[in-house]
TrEMBL record:
NCBIfam families attached to this UniProt entry: PRK10917.1-3, PRK10917.2-2, recG
SMART domains: DEXDc, HELICc
Lineage start: Bacteria, Pseudomonadati, Bacteroidota, Flavobacteriia, Flavobacteriales
GO molecular function list: DNA helicase activity; hydrolase activity
E.C. numbers: 5.6.2.4
Pfam families: DEAD, Helicase_C, RecG_dom3_C, RecG_wedge
Protein name as annotated: ATP-dependent DNA helicase RecG
Catalytic activity annotation: ATP + H2O = ADP + phosphate + H(+); Couples ATP hydrolysis with the unwinding of duplex DNA by translocating in the 3'-5' direction
Domain Helicase ATP-binding: 285-447
Top-level taxon of the source organism: Bacteria
Family: Belongs to the helicase family. RecG subfamily.
Function in brief: Plays a critical role in recombination and DNA repair. Helps process Holliday junction intermediates to mature products by catalyzing branch migration. Has replication fork regression activity, unwinds stalled or blocked replication forks to make a HJ that can be resolved. Has a DNA unwinding activity characteristic of a DNA helicase with 3'-5' polarity.
Amino acid sequence: MRSGVLQTPLAYLKGVGPNRAEALKTELGLETFGDLLQLYPNRYLDKTQYYKINQLQNSGADVQIVGKIVNLKTIEQKRGKRLEASFVDETGELKLVWFRSHKWIRENIKINEPYVVFGKVNRYGNSFSMPHPEMELLKVHQAGLKISMQPIYPSTEKLSAKGITNKVVSKMLQQLFLETKADFNESLPKTLLDELKLLPKPESLLNIHFPKSQELLAKAQFRLKFEELFYVQLQLLSKKAARKKKIKGLPFKEVGEQFNSFFNNHLPFELTNAQKRVIKEIRNDMGSSAQMNRLLQGDVGSGKTIVALMCMLLAIDNGFQACLMAPTEILAQQHYNGLKDLLLQMNLKIALLTGSTKRAERTFLHNQLENGNLNILVGTHAVLEDKVQFKNLGLAIIDEQHRFGVAQRSKLWHKNEIPPHVLVMTATPIPRTLAMSLYGDLDISVIDELPPGRKPIKTVHRFDSNRLKVFGFIKDEIKKGRQIYIVYPLIKESEALDYKDLMDGYESIAREFPQPEYQISIVHGQMKPQDKDYEMERFVNGETQLMVATTVIEVGVNVPNASVMIIESAERFGLSQLHQLRGRVGRGAEQSFCILMTSHKLSADAKTRLETMTGTNDGFEIAEVDLKLRGPGDLMGTQQSGLLNLKIADIVKDNPILKLARHHAVQLLKQDPKLDKPDNLPVRRTYAELVKDKAIWGYIS
Ligand code: ADP
Ligand code: MG
């Protein structure tokens, strides 16, 4: 755009003025011409469609109706006057309502003449009303320009109350196009426009606001979505490239004695092909001179731990220490026990550090870490404390990354002069292309195969009213020597309530499964860590057959003999949480079961979640449904990558465009990493504009 016209404050646009500009700013965050231009319609209304009053169904629908006003009256109310009109067609009656501008309407409206009214309808029982309709005499309407698709803009109640209706916004945009003569800069290179047959920028903007046809609208949408995703990808890729270039790593050149001896003599099972492939990827990455920052995705039970161990052995082979961090004490303890067993025959020092490690032991540990006697440290957040210093930390692994924040990840970076390689592991899989975009600056490895011989878990949904049958089933399983989890929801906001649920549940279970025949463990968030551990250990050792717990049990816990997972109030859990919980069983040779208990009152989403769980064991499939239900907001990384602030694209629905955009962003950076080819000038300019306040620009310029 010619010298910054798009930066002009909206107040200067004819027909806006200071008051409206202020309202647009507070309500929609619009400040400049450019912002208004990017206020894309939420949807388009088919103006060729006319409704009959008896066809109206839902509140909130925008409709266009032909009819007549048969009477007009003012109604006095405590909260002020309102003007009401009866609007009829041959099928029924609709109330038109005004809370202001009464005088103007009284004077101008024509009774008994055909009008076209347009607006949102509200439903009260079986009658409908339309507040502040847009109106036009039918004969004017018929003589006027035919717009077949009317854009509907995002709005708020305050805006409409201030008279900034959809029509007014549309007028503002008309004015904007007039004043600027739609002389907008192209932001994509010509070669790309040609190759993908994209609509040029000015035409796209024009057709998004004033579609000339369905076809041009579709083209405009495609072009603008592509552009938006293209620039998100370009930023992510540049950031990653900048990191790789700038941040030196510790090259692990050796595959040495520890790795080989473990691989040849102590591996308790044959690695799956996926595990082998992933270890290779990580090895290559750590062998180069750039720091590794990698995400390892693998469904619950896919065997990430052994991969973590072998990577740590590589670090040790190259003269470095390694640490493994887990989000809970229980999990850290399990990792520690598991790794210690695996390393039993090897001459390596491994230790555990958590919040409840005793002072004296802690001091000893700190020393061992600093003088390099300790090879592997397993722990919780306690590992991040400043007091914890390594002699030479070469690899930091974070299990169940979604529990840790980015800030914590970066703390690890400072544990060594040259930052250690970082591997984050997660069992919350997300579709791969999405992952690449979300985690942008991370590399990704995926274990997409379960160890052989696993029996798929049988999952069923049962209503609370069938509880007795479920108890009977549990008893049968216990007779066969199995162990059972019973999990209650935990929602932070109402911890006291959840605690009560858990305790009520515990009591009824204790009555149903009396001692001494049955032993029950209980674990919840309000217990002291050592009490938790004690209870957990009794269950791990098979001293108790039932484990009643809140979701503290969710992450990582491994008790192969446990074959039944009962989830209480399953409708209150999210899909990924349900899947994680289910992953606690199915770890041994026996057939495992997951029983989802709910009341009869289920929302549509809850039903979908339950059906998904009973329908599949595939974590990736579940993740896709979850994404569709919840949107990407809860996924780690969406904030940082800017994928949530998208103005027109939707990363779930527009996934194919996302892939395309990523592909072309990769190509572009490959061919012209500094963006100095003439054809790429539009990219260089747009990019500079986007990252004006961000440090990553330094990489390209
Ligand atoms: P997760 O990926 O959920 O962390 P784990 O690493 O805890 O999974 O592994 C789950 C179980 O599978 C463990 O008992 C582990 O010993 C076992 N396991 C891992 N890899 C294999 C394999 N290749 N063959 C057989 N069992 C395996
Ligand atoms: Mg694990």
